[in-house]
Amino acid sequence: MVLNLKTLNDLPEGVRKPGYDRADLTAGIVHIGLGNFHRAHQAWYSHRLMDQGLALDWAILGAGVRPADDAQRTKMLEQDCLTTLIELDPSGKSAEITGAMIGYIPVAADNAPLIAHMAEAAIRIVSMTVTEGGYYQTAGGTLDTEHPDIRHDAENPGAPRTAFGAMIAALRLRRDAGLGPFTCLSCDNLQGNGDILKRTILGLASLSDPALSGWIDQNASFPNSMVDCIVPATGPTELALVREFGVEDNVPVTHEPFRQWVIEDTFCAGRPDWDKVGATFTSDVHSFEAMKLRQLNAGHQVIATPGELLSVETIAGTMAHPLIGGLLRKIEVEEIVPHVAAVPGMTPLAYVDLIERRFGNPEIRDTTRRVAFDGSSRHSGFLHPIIRDALAAGTPIEGLALVEALWARMCAGTREDGSSIAPNDPFWDTLTKHAALAKDDPSQWLSQTQFYGDLGQDDRFAAAFDRWLRLVWDQGTESALQTYLDG
């Protein structure tokens, strides 16, 4: 059965359908970067709230700022923005149709349609998932004012290229019309994501309109949030799986049977009661996000990097590999847990057990390539802060240094079986250049201060990295892993 509003009530038995009439929904949220994760996570919370007859004026308009987003828009509109979510539980799969998204804004080079929609009074939240590396930050955490996109938006504030420039243009229109601002809600895996979004917005706005930057600072809100759900990319396997449920969906989403959303309760224009369907509002997002980013997101890089080198295709496959699974456990317990505080209902050691079960779920076909993508942002964002804390505290760093060495080896562009690794990072050319130089002189890798800052100047870390990278090149990844596990 082709998925759309006309066929919704005729879908096969056993497929969970919305309990609300889509005709009753009106938009209150614009979400920029509408990929699989948003539809399996934030949109699901809104959908389940609507099932209770609540938040009917908080429906979602999808948006994108890249030309490639237009293809996704076409597919979504063809099925009236309905999505089939397939939960991949080892005990059994289930399917659910969600309908919290009611439209997709046209994609344009100058972002005029997006700006116009965000300027409407009914829109009270603009949320985003633009990836960890999409916030135009320097290694020092400031706005990269020399980036061509930022320079363009500063010089052309009425026809911006970035999502942030579009948000600023919409906020200008709202201010000039006497409307209040909307809440700017980041849903990306960044420590203090709301604070980072605020710095990006205020920094960019100040380049063209300091008075507007001040108005945004005083009136808008930027909640920090922590999001968590493993959501694989959609490919032939997922397209075949949705058909097994009797649904023809060109953009289905699969996900694990776990979700978490922890949000700082600072919304300048109201919000849905997401806590009624499992989200957590708290004044202490930092502790939750520190646990998740340091243990789960950093842990993903720990296993994906050697997995790619050893031609292990999936994350579940890495957990089944005795050396990679052992690497994760030892690094988590000995090198990460000492720098993570407990949160209500969860200790760091219990969280290690939880992520091992989640990573090892054989139903989740999450590829090592997807998880290893954009290592320049993910290593610097997830692993390097732990290394810095460990160096300051004098606690072990050997496993973390090994992972950095494995990343340098991976960026040489070949696996240990001789096959090529396709470019997998926005800075792939730079990384491969330094990886080649580092084969004979490991310090060349750490000289990339745009990723490492001053970490390469720390004698203890540099020495450990040098030793591990030489061992990886001389004896191979498995030998290096075994040496660490035996140590």
Automatic annotation (TrEMBL):
The lineage of its organism: Bacteria, Pseudomonadati, Pseudomonadota, Alphaproteobacteria, Rhodobacterales. Transmembrane segments: none annotated. Gene3D superfamilies: N-(1-d-carboxylethyl)-l-norvaline Dehydrogenase, domain 2, NAD(P)-binding Rossmann-like Domain. Its EC number is 1.1.1.67. It comes from Flavimaricola marinus. Signal peptide: none annotated. GO terms for molecular function: mannitol 2-dehydrogenase activity. This is Mannitol 2-dehydrogenase. InterPro entries: 6-PGluconate_DH-like_C_sf, 6PGD_dom2, Mannitol_DH, Mannitol_DH/Oxidoreductase, Mannitol_DH_C, Mannitol_DH_N, NAD(P)-bd_dom_sf. Keywords: Oxidoreductase. Residues 284-467 form the Mannitol dehydrogenase C-terminal domain. Residues 28-276 form the Mannitol dehydrogenase N-terminal domain. It is an enzyme of class 1 (oxidoreductase).
